[in-house]
Design goal:
12 strands; Metallo-beta-lactamase, Chain A; 7 helices; 249 residues; alpha/beta; five-stranded mixed β-sheet
Length: 249
Amino acid sequence: MARSLIVALAAAWLAWACPVPAATPGVTKPSLELRLLRPGVWIHTSYYTFPDGSIVPANGMVVRDGGGLLLVDTAWGEQLTVDLLDRIQREIKLPVRRAIVTHAHGDRLAGADVLRRRGVPVYALPQTISRAMAVGLAIPSDSLSGLRKTGDAEWLGAVEVLFPGPGHAPDNLMVWVPSARVLFGGCAVKSAASTSLGNLADADTKAWPEAIRRAMERYPTAEFIIPGRGAEGGKSLLTHTLELLGAPQ
């Protein structure tokens, strides 16, 4: 009973803290999408339906990592994460061997318990783990202890994980796939269709521009940028985010 209440309260908090422009109520959307972006890199998108009928998407990434896969962010909920893992098994036919969550919001780590039950380690910043515990969210199992300060980066298999500094959230990470020149910017990066920064409840708008500039400087060869919501694009998504922040480029 107590855990159910905590989960319900956490879900309510996330609905308030992280709202984004939603699809029109009543419009039918698939609950889950998985599509190939480049060889060895897929985008997964899950659609969360709020009580008012609005539908909100959340992007994640799947990366070929040796003989297995690395998952970047879970789907938005436990059942959707189960569905995602089943679809990965059917379509990609490789096991998910580890996962990274990019910050402590439900659209990023709500399925972490599913992964843990299946023996998949879930990596995150120590700060993400503590923040998830504080609000009753699923808790990542493994700490990215090499990411101690702003600007630190750490390799995890085929990808480099960067802590560019606070932005959309104090603990947002980015994930670089050098073999495909794909950068997963997550919710720190806005899509080209975004006309605002969304809810800023956990944001640090003063530090956010510098986080974007760090990514621009570190990954000048990036060809695809994946935002937390909306369509992927080129490096113009980074400059667009700076524009929304009212920051010089």
